[in-house]
Amino acid sequence: MANKIVKKDQIKNLLNKVAQSSQLIAPIKSDSITTFRPVSSAEAVVLDYQNGVIPPKDFFFPQSEKMFTYNINDPTWDIREVEGVPERVLFGARPCDVKSILLLDKVFDAEFRDNYYLDKRDKTTIVAMSCNDCRHTCFCGAFGISPDTAEGADLLFTDLGDKYLVEVLTEKGEKLVNSAKEFFADDDGSGAGAKAKATEMAKAKQMQISLEGVKEKLDNMWEHPIWDNESLRCIGCGTCTYVCPTCHCFDIVDYNDQSAEGYRYRCWDSCQFSNFTRAAGGHQPRPSKKERIRQRFLHKLRYFVDRYGDFGCVGCGRCLEKCPVNLDIAQIITKVKEVG
Ligand code: SF4
Ligand code: SF4
C-alpha cells in the first residue's frame, strides 16, 4: 500500500476510532514520566515525547503474569488457564523498542514456543513513531537501527509538523488503515523528503558508537580485569535489567494463601541479583558482582550474537541513564575497543 498522510488535528479522532474496536495502548504522561498504558480514549495520549523510561515490553512480557490457577482438593487439580489478551494496537513505540520486540521473538518464538508471549504478540498491531529528537543517552545507530525506520512495526508514523507520514509495512498495518479509511489521505510524494528532514536531528544528536571488533574482543575477555573494575561500584539494584527492553529473565512462583486454591505466576528476575543463579544445595556459580556484571555485558554483546546472530541491545540508553552509579554500556563498549 502506498504511503498515507494523517492530518495532525485528526490523530486523536483516529485513535478514538481505533480504541472502539481494539484495546489501545499508547504513551501517556504520569507525573513527569512518559509511559505506555491502555487507554479508553485518546484524550490523555501524548504525541510529542522523547522515549520513556519504561519500554512497552510489559505488554508482551509482563512484569508479573498469572499462568494458571489450581485447586489441590480437586482430584484433577482443576488447572484453569488464564484468558488471553484482546486484539490490541500499540501506538507510538519508538524504533529501538520495536527492534527489541524482534529480539524477544528470537527467545520466545524459538524451538520452545512461549504461548503466553505469542498470544500477546499475535494480537498486537504495532504502530511505530519515528524519532524527531532523541535523548542524550541514545545510540541505536550502533546496532543498525535508525530513528526513521522500524523493522517489525506494522505502520510507521513520522511527525511532519502539521501532519503525519504513514508508511504501511505489513498486512496488519493495511488492515488498520482500511478500518479507519476516512482519516488517511494519499501522500502526494513529498512525504519521504519531509521525513528525512524531520528526523535528521535525532540521527545527528545520538551518540555515535561503532561496535566493530567488539564481539571478537569479548570472545577472549572472560578473565579480563575490566569486570572486576567495573563491578566495584555496582550496588546490585537490578535497575539496568528492569528498564531494559531486551532483558527477558523470569522466575516462576506458586502462590496460595494456605488454602486449596492457588495460582502460578511468573515475574521478571535479574541476573544482577545474588540469588538469581543460586542452586539447590547452595551452590552459587556467580558468587560476586564481578561474575554478574560480566554476565550482563557478555550476554548482550557476545552470547546473544552467538545464539541468535544479533546483539542483545538496541542502544535505547535507558540503563546508562537510570543506573545510580553510572555504569554505562556505551562506555564499556568503548573500553573493550581500547583493550590491546
Ligand atoms: S542494555 Fe541498556 S542500552 Fe541496551 S537495550 Fe538494554 S537498557 Fe537499552
Ligand atoms: S543499575 Fe547499575 S548499580 Fe544497579 S545493578 Fe545495574 S549496573 Fe549495578
UniProtKB/TrEMBL annotation:
User: Which UniProt keywords are listed?
Assistant: Iron, Iron-sulfur, Metal-binding
Q: Which Pfam families match?
A: Fer4_22
Tell me the superkingdom of the source: Bacteria
Q: Which InterPro entries match?
A: 4Fe4S_Fe-S-bd (IPR017896), 4Fe4S_Fe_S_CS (IPR017900), Helical_ferredxn (IPR009051)
Q: Which residues form the 4Fe-4S ferredoxin-type domain?
A: 223-255, 301-335
Gene3D superfamilies assigned to the protein according to its UniProt record, in alphabetical order: Alpha-helical ferredoxin
Gene Ontology MF term list: iron-sulfur cluster binding; metal ion binding
Q: Does the keyword Iron apply?
A: yes
Q: Does the keyword Repeat apply?
A: no
Please give the PANTHER family that the UniProt record associates with this protein.
Answer: ANAEROBIC SULFITE REDUCTASE SUBUNIT A
Q: What is this protein called?
A: Putative anaerobic sulfite reductase, A subunit
